[in-house]
Write a structure and sequence with these properties.
This protein has 202 residues and is mostly beta strands. The protein contains 3 helices and 10 strands. The protein has a 4-stranded mixed beta sheet with strand order 3-10-7-8, with no helix packed on it.
C-alpha cells in the first residue's frame, strides 16, 4: 500500500492533526470484471439467439485478488465460473475462453492474455463450477506517484492560507498523475462479437 498520509483515527479525505490530507491509495492493480464480459451464453444451434436455443449459461463470480510487492507488483486474481445447462442427460465437458488484461489509466491496454476454464457436468447434473486464475506484473515505478505530487497532496494546510480551500485532488497535474499511475487487472470471458452483442441487447 502506498500511504500518502496516515493519522491515528482519521479517515480518508479528512484533515489530520498536522494539517495534511489523509489519503490511502493502493499502488497495486485492482481486479475487476468489465461490464458485459462477466457472463456468456452458448446456443444450440449456434446461429440462434432464441430463448429455446439456450444451451449453456456461465458467469464469473467471487473475484478475489492478492498483490506481492517487489521490483514489480504481481497481482493474482482467482475467480469461480458457475454454469448451468438445459440438457443434463449425459456427462459433458465445456471449455470456455477467458481473458485477463492490464489496463492503465482506465483505457490503455498494456497486456492481454487468453486462458481457458473447463467445466465438467456429471450425468444428470444441470450445474457445474470450476476455479480459474489470472496474473499481472506492473512496474513499481510506473504505479507510484511522483514525490512532488505526493508532497502536494500531503502538504500542511492552515485556515487562512491561500491554498487552504483548494482540493489537491482537483488540481490538473495531480489528477493526471493519479490517472497515469492507476492500473487494473480486468478479467472476463473472451467473447465473440456476436456474444458481446447479445449481452448488450438482451
Amino acid at each position: 500500500m502506498l500511504a500518502l498520509a496516515l493519522a491515528g483515527c482519521s479517515r480518508r479525505g479528512e484533515i489530520d492533526a498536522t494539517g495534511g490530507v489523509v489519503a490511502v491509495r493502493s499502488a497495486c492493480p485492482s481486479a475487476a470484471i468489465p461490464a458485459g464480459t462477466g457472463d456468456v451464453t452458448l446456443f444450440n444451434p449456434a446461429n440462434s439467439t432464441d430463448a429455446s436455443a439456450i444451451d449453456v449459461v456461465a458467469n464469473i463470480t467471487d473475484l478475489r485478488s492478492t498483490c506481492s510487492d517487489g521490483a514489480q507488483f504481481y497481482t493474482e486474481a482467482t475467480f469461480t465460473v458457475n454454469a448451468r445447462r438445459t440438457d443434463a442427460s449425459v456427462a459433458r465437458q465445456v471449455t470456455l475462453p477467458y481473458y485477463s488484461a492490464v489496463v492503465q489509466a482506465g483505457t490503455n491496454v498494456i497486456a492481454k492474455r487468453v486462458g481457458q476454464v473447463t467445466l465438467n457436468f456429471a450425468p444428470g447434473a444441470y450445474r457445474a463450477s470450476a476455479q480459474a486464475k489470472a496474473g499481472s506484473y506492473v512496474d513499481k515505478a510506473a504505479a507510484t506517484l511522483p514525490a512532488d505530487v505526493q508532497a502536494k497532496i500531503t502538504q500542511k494546510r492552515k485556515a487562512g492560507d491561500a491554498d487552504a480551500a483548494i482540493d489537491p485532488f482537483a488540481q490538473p497535474d495531480v489528477k493526471a498523475a493519479l490517472q497515469r499511475t492507476s492500473f487494473e487487472l480486468l478479467v472476463g470471458f473472451n467473447l465473440t462479437q456476436d456474444q458481446l452483442r447479445y449481452n448488450a441487447t438482451r
